[in-house]
Write a structure and sequence with these properties.
The chain is mainly β. It has one domain: Metal Binding Protein, Guanine Nucleotide Exchange Factor, Chain A. It is built from no helices and ten strands. It has strands at about 5-10, 15-20, 20-25, 30-35, 40-45, 55-60, 65-75, 80-85, 100-105, 110-114. The chain has a seven-stranded antiparallel beta sheet with strand order 1-4-5-9-8-7-6, with no helix packed on it. InterPro entries: DUF427, DUF427_sf. It comes from Seohaeicola saemankumensis. Pfam families: NTP_transf_9. This is DUF427 domain-containing protein.
Length: about 110
């Protein structure tokens, strides 16, 4: 595992909301910190309403975590393109984020502790 990446269980309960809908709520979310960057919450897929997500063709590569697949969030009024990502086959040392999804927090997507 890269020394500058830390994965820990996120304290409390976390939710993700978009388009007026709760997409997920979890007591089992993970907090990933990478160097001085802000932490990212990774939700277990089992706690996400995957019906709101559509896989896209977009992907990125992180030399430490591996290849990320992306998802758009489909709401009643809009599609939020590439608003979520997942490392489906993460690199050694990053296995804890397998089967988890992270979301870009923005003015249209809220990721918050409740």
């Amino acid at each position: 595992m890269a020394d500058h990446i830390k994965i820990t269980k996120a304290d409390g309960t976390w939710v993700v909301r978009a388009g007026g809908a709760v997409l997920g709520e979890s007591h089992d979310a993970l907090e990933l910190t990478e160097g001085s960057m802000p932490f990212v919450i990774y939700f277990p897929r089992k706690d996400i309403a995957m019906a709101f997500l559509d896989r896209t063709d977009h992907s990125t590569h992180c030399p430490h975590k591996g290849d990320a697949s992306y998802f758009s969030i489909v709401t009643k009024s809009t599609t939020l393109k590439n608003a979520a990502w997942s490392y489906e086959d993460p690199k050694p040392g990053m296995e804890r984020i397998k089967d988890h999804i992270a979301f870009y927090a923005s003015d249209t997507v809220a990721v918050e502790q409740v």
